[in-house]
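Fold these two proteins, one after the other.
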Amino acid sequence: MGAKILINAISYYEVKRELLAVSATRKLEKFENFCENFSLALLDSKDIFDKSAQIYADLKKKGKLIKDADILIASTVISKNSILVSNDTDFSKI
């Protein structure tokens, strides 16, 4: 049996908000159909926020801050002991 694939809730929000903002109705429908096959990785524990705060503090000390959304995505992945698949280079700073 393979690993369970989840969509990070923040990533879901980021994609959906942009499709709605540009009225990309057809793409939005395809996106929603795609997402029906997967659960969302939710921000559902204090550990995620504790990890986010630590990541933020570490990056700030290094002068390499990234967007809060990316910090929350990364901390969700770390807290849930998951693997992140992304082409966003900001994640390499964590």
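Now the second one:
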Amino acid sequence: MTMNATPGTPGSGTTEAPKRRPTINDVAEAAGVSRGTVSRYLNGGKWVSPDAQEAIHRAIRRTGYRANQHARSLVTGRANALAFLLAEPQDRLFADPTYTPLLRGAAEALTRRQMTLNLLVASTPEERENVVAYMAGGHVDGAMLISSHENDPLLDLLLSHGIPVVSCGLPLGRTDTVASVSVDEAGGARAMVAHLRSRGRRRIAMITGPLDQPGGRYRLQGYREELGADFDEALVAHGDWGRESGSAAMTELLARAGDIDAVFAASDAMAAGAMATLRRAGLRVPDDVAVGGFDDSPLAVNLDPPLTTMHQPFDRISAEMVALLLETVAGGEIKSVILPARLVVRAST
């Protein structure tokens, strides 16, 4: 039987050479940088300029380079993976609008370095023991701790096992021993109160977050500082970041001090709850009561009216956490990075 074949196909008698796997040298040549610069980029980005990082990222995509993770692990003794560790119940992961952009940003930052992100949740004693045992077993190189509380036993467990940690938000009581990336909580709160005052509002209430977390404590501090002698404890109510707690706190504030003409909620979700309570009470936003939030989460723009809020740069927070954690894994010094919050004015004020 005769078989017809075209050159370079099976059965033709000639074969094409297998495609060569791109190497780190190919990436360096395509990016116009040295091999050492590419190596530093792949191992955390320390001492690599932003321009070089962008050039290397483009070169990796263009060449199709993939690091040999197994070989890298054998050489470095590392897992080439980091944990996104949420210290809250599982249902909070998607209920809180701030966690998803942080998670997405961390995943993108690690993808650029050809590393893996592991999502771990630990809010109960059993979950804490399981995740710490998993991380101590070498499955990840370090943890990005999300939503830590003051005196949280999870943080003590991580430190006692020598697991590198970077906290999202200043770790209350641990600022000297744990690296962190945070937004300027107090400065953002001051900016929001100043904005409300510039709109002629004088009875400005606040709904805080939990005071054992940096966002709760320092946003209240900024509110208090900006009001100065006008601060009134009766105009402060407390929530847990969630919409329902914002609604309950607003109900409490209206019963206690009904002449409120503005409210600053320490999260967009609590602001949404406050707006719902005001509506049920027959009060108009912003005509009767102006409302400001904090986060600039996707929720803010979809409220009616759209919410004035303090923008947190979640993508930059995630990228800084990844970079700082990789520095910590490599033995770098403990550092705290504080990023500015930006006022975004919408119809609610």
